[in-house]
Design a protein that fits this description.
Oligomer: single chain
Distance between the termini: 22 Å
Number of helices: 14
Strand order of the largest sheet: 2-4-1-5-6-7
Strand content: 15-25%
Largest sheet: 6 strands, mixed
Radius of gyration: 23 Å
Length: 366
């Protein structure tokens, strides 16, 4: 499994510029006019993890394989998108399967960069996008309810599902996102969510796109978005799409120096991914050997067999035990053999809950 993040926002707020920078691939056009992105863009981005090179060096592994994040960028949404205005509504299906939403919002003033509504107001912009996403979900829910109502005649067991759909319809019609409906958090709601892939049930990261001055100091736009995010229980991160562009092509050392000159210690990519992992309760464990050191993404709280299944379903099906070394122990002792000799290599069974940074060797039989 991996993390997938769908990028939404109004046209011309810096979505494509940010996408280009984050993915280090100029495969999303970037121009100073609305609707410059007319096809959904997808890219697989490696997850930065400083622990991997250290493990590779100690183990002498030939290859280093990072965990990955899928970024999905769609055309800018505008007011009326759910009714066919603009182009972004055509691509909403591409983000329905994303784990989280990165809502890019403009938080800088620049007369040379056109705003689709003629002025910079991030809270207004957020409300426009929110409305369109809610309306898109409402259409999907209403279509599902219509189909279910026809099926109900032959299967009365569908009654509770239809009742929940009608409750959800009424809820969305008030302009509230699906995630705010308590009934969706239950067992029946979970079943329905898997089927509908509701966009407004996904956790949101507000990506506050600022200029270089805004990186150092929070401007009024940033303060307003932070307040809104806090009230909603969402997360807000400050990024500069232009600055991220300048990081493209720099070595690790050069990037650190560049960021330090602005008083920050991590790039927008690192910040967005770290926030996504925290929001979704994701962690990484490692497999280490002479051929490769590999990072694997799992949900916090997963037990050993389930975590093993991320590598291959046979590992979960035929799980016997796991040999586990904490990352700090591996680094401290320098090798698996030395960890074994020191007694810090543990043999764990099916009930073991993996911890972030565990170095694991699974034994299985099928």
């Amino acid at each position: 499994m991996g993390l997938s993040i769908g990028i939404v926002g109004l046209p011309n707020v810096g979505k494509s510029t940010l996408f280009n920078a984050l993915t280090k691939a100029q495969n999303a056009q970037s121009a100073n006019y609305p609707f410059c992105t007319i096809e959904p863009n997808k890219a697989v981005v490696p997850v930065p993890d400083a622990r991997l090179p250290k493990l590779q060096e100690l183990a002498g592994s030939q290859k280093l394989i990072q965990a990955t994040v899928d970024f999905i960028d769609i055309a800018g949404l505008v007011k009326g998108a759910s009714k066919g205005e603009g182009l972004g509504n055509q691509f909403l299906a591409n983000i329905r399967e994303a784990d989280a939403i990165l809502h890019v919002v403009r938080c800088f003033e620049n007369d040379d960069v056109v705003h689709v509504d003629g002025s910079v107001d991030p809270v207004r912009d957020i409300e426009v996008i929110d409305t369109e996403l809610i309306l898109a979900d409402l259409q999907a829910v209403e279509r599902k309810a219509e189909r279910l109502a026809k099926q109900l005649k032959g299967d009365k067991k569908l009654g509770p599902q239809l009742d929940l759909l009608q409750t959800l319809t009424s809820h969305l019609q008030t302009g509230k996102p699906a995630i705010d409906l308590p009934e969706l958090h239950g067992e029946l709601g979970q079943e329905l969510r898997k089927d509908l892939l509701l966009i407004t049930f996904k956790p949101v990261i507000f990506g506050m796109n600022v200029d270089e001055d805004g990186i150092v100091h929070d401007n009024d736009h940033v303060l307003r978005v932070r307040q809104l995010a806090s009230a909603r229980g969402a997360r807000a991160v400050k990024i500069s799409a232009r600055m991220e562009e300048e990081l493209v092509g720099l070595s690790l050392e050069e990037a650190h120096e560049f960021l330090a000159s602005y008083g920050v210690d991590e790039s927008g990519l690192d910040l967005v991914i770290r926030t996504g992992y925290e929001m979704l309760g994701l962690i990484s464990y490692f497999t280490v050997g002479p051929k490769e050191v590999h990072a694997w993404t799992i949900h916090q709280g997963w037990k050993a067999p389930q975590a093993a299944g991320v590598i291959h379903t046979d590992f979960e099906r035929g799980f016997i035990r796991a040999e586990v070394i904490a990352y700090a122990d591996y680094i401290g002792h320098g090798s698996e053999a030395k960890c074994r000799a020191a007694g810090v290599l543990r043999v764990e069974g099916k009930e073991y809950v993996l911890q972030d940074g565990d170095v694991v060797h699974f034994l299985f039989n099928v």
